[in-house]
């Protein structure tokens, strides 16, 4: 299957000399939900802005549904909808007018039934004749989403779409994302709510300092890079970790009532059985134990930290 979005060698260096992107290679399949994670300033918005034609790249190629971004820009851009971080729309226009106008900008014929359903899906139909300036921040965000979907794009970019919005909008929006994916729309999102990426995404890319440091299927990434944490609730508190347990790099928590051990769940020898035997030999009892799997956020933080350490060493 030909990818709906193909990016090769994409780079961006601004006149100031700041290199925002360097050698980005990425392919995304039709109907996929792809989450792009990275700290502020990592290059997420620059990448989206280049694909959406807002920023000119310094090098590399972008192909959208078979259309070369540089040679056939209008066709490529017509395949894309963008919900930016910032709210930009005409404050004096009515909701239904601005959404219908956005559809017309892409040369789509009038379709009042589609616009009505779109506004209903986003709980905007009752506000269709209200001016943008009269809406709350959450409602304005809904209008931006409606504008992005007005021309029925094949790819929808969501740049920090739920930052600072109410719980109701977040729920409505993710329900809409699921529905769009079922209809074959490709969703590419950036988010600081990593639990959303963990719940929604098929694959995850982590970007740091303008470079993609990992692209992986979400569950495989968690399985491959995730660590587990074993927490032992002690029968009697400890003041310090005994020297005899030093090889396990344990930590004390809960005012000495808990021993915490991190281990690689994929390793041949996790160290857990030998730890429990050694504790028994030392007469250290425990009342309960539990294990937790690293979250996507834990993995993300670890990858970025690891990349920074490699750069310092170089």
Report what the structure shows:
- The chain has 314 residues and is of the alpha/beta class.
- Helices cover 34% and strands 27% of the residues.
- It has a 6-stranded mixed beta sheet with strand order 6-7-8-3-9-10, with helices on both faces.
- The radius of gyration is 24 Å and the shape is elongated.
- The model has no long low-confidence stretch (mean pLDDT 86).
Shape: elongated
What is the residue-mean pLDDT, rounded to a whole number? Answer: 86
Q: Give the N-terminus to C-terminus distance in angstroms.
A: 39 Å
Strand-and-helix sequence, N→C?
A: EEEHEEHEHHHEHEHEEHEEEHEH
Q: Specify the number of helices.
A: 10
Q: Which strand order spans the largest sheet, edge to edge or round the barrel?
A: 6-7-8-3-9-10
Detail the poorly predicted runs.
none
**Which architecture name of the largest domain does CATH use?**
3-Layer(aba) Sandwich
Q: Structural class of the secondary elements?
A: alpha/beta
Main β sheet profile: 6 strands, mixed
User: What percent of residues are in strands?
Assistant: 25-35%
Count of all domains = 2
- Quick one: CATH superfamily of the largest domain? P-loop containing nucleotide triphosphate hydrolases
Report the CATH topology name of the largest domain.
Answer: Rossmann fold
Radius of gyration: 24 Å
Instruction: Report helical residue fraction.
Output: 25-40%
Q: In the CATH hierarchy, what is the class of the largest domain?
A: Alpha Beta
Counting DSSP E segments of at least 2 residues, the number of strands comes to 14
Pfam family, one: ABC_tran
InterPro entries: AAA+_ATPase (IPR003593), ABC_transporter-like_ATP-bd (IPR003439), ABC_transporter-like_CS (IPR017871), ABC_transporter_ATP-binding (IPR050763), P-loop_NTPase (IPR027417)
GO molecular function: ATP binding; ATP hydrolysis activity
Organism: Sphingopyxis indica
């Amino acid at each position: 299957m030909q990818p709906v979005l193909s990016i090769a060698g994409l780079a961006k260096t601004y006149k100031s000399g700041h290199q925002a992107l360097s050698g980005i290679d990425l392919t995304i399949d039709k109907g996929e939900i792809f989450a792009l994670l990275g700290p502020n300033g990592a290059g997420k918005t620059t990448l989206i802005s280049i694909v959406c034609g807002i920023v000119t790249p310094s090098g590399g190629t972008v192909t959208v549904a078979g259309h070369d971004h540089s040679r056939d820009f209008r066709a490529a851009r017509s395949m894309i909808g963008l919900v930016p971080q910032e709210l930009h729309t005409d404050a004096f226009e009515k909701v239904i007018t601005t959404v219908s106008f956005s559809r017309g900008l892409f040369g789509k014929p009038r379709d009042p039934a589609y616009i009505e359903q779109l506004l209903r899906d986003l709980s905007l139909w009752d506000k269709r004749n209200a001016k943008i300036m009269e809406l709350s921040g959450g409602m304005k965000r809904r209008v931006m989403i409606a504008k992005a979907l007005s021309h029925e794009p094949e790819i929808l970019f969501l740049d920090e779409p739920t930052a600072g919005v109410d719980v109701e909008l977040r729920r409505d929006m993710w329900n809409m994302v699921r529905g769009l994916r079922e209809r074959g729309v490709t969703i590419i999102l950036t988010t600081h709510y990593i639990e959303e990426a963990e719940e929604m995404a098929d694959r995850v890319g982590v970007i740091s300092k303008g470079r993609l440091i990992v692209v992986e299927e979400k569950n495989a990434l968690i399985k491959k890079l995730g660590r587990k944490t074993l927490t032992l609730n002690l029968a009697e508190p400890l003041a310090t970790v005994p020297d005899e347990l030093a090889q396990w790099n344990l930590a004390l928590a809960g005012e000495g009532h808990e021993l915490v051990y991190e281990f690689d769940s994929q390793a041949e020898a996790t160290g857990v059985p030998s730890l429990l035997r050694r504790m028994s030999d030392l007469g250290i009892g425990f009342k309960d134990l539990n294990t937790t799997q690293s979250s996507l956020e834990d993995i993300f933080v670890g990858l970025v930290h690891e990349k920074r350490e490699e750069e310092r060493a170089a």
